[in-house]
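Page 47, continued from p. 46.
Same chain as before, 286 aa.
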Amino acid sequence: MDHPNKNQPKSDMMNKKLIQLIQANEDWLMEKILHYAIEREYSKYTSTLKEAWRLSISGLSRSFVSGLETGRTDFELHPDENYSKDPIARFGINEAILHRERGIDIGMFLGFFKYYRQCYIELIDANVNGSEHATYSRWIHLFFDRVEIGLCSEWINTKEKKLFKELQDANRKMTNEKNKYLTIFESLAQPVLLLTPQLYIDNMNHAASILLDKTSVSGSKYYAIDLSKNEMTDNHPLKDKHVKEMFPWLYPVIIEFHSEKRYQQSIEKQSIWIMKIVHFKYICLK
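Result:
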């Protein structure tokens, strides 16, 4: 006669408690990883949109929850384990494919991924006490070990030919996305300037170029033909010019905006430029 495992109800309860803790704190985890991304300067290689960070935490949490929902409590690593069938490791495999296509170096990815691990450990530290703290901390470390094993296995086992095709496909997709962005950007009737944090011009659309040059042709600032080499060249003479030099009437407004402690991220103003009243909106993306 089989006897029920007396520890099973307790194990199920521990699994459910950890699931609830992770799911209830995804916003907290998202804010934490965004903080680390900015502090450790990984943010310059990633999206600045909060939704992108939310999705990364959501996907990672979902893989952990999938592993917990199986009811297992043994997350230790085994020499004969097939990590491709493990829902936790599967997340790492998918991320390897995705980030490799984007040209991300495995060292950079794993370096930043350590801070994801740190976020989940800090979540346990802040919310769990006693014997459960040691168990949950151990599980979190094993979860991340499994994700990293899946990621590294996929990264190193992919053949060179497949890698080349992935890069070709990703490059083609990026080119198409860039062309769509430029078409929309150049078609806007409102002048748009993109500035660096140091207030140098990073890009401007056709309507903005006309403010400086009435003969400007849409798209001409992106490419030109070098007849000596018979190839397309970058032709953006205003790029990297300071806004104070090119749009002196705009500069004082921006300086005033940044010198004051503002809670809003945008202001609307009007100014006079070459005998015309210009209405504009300044948006600060943080």
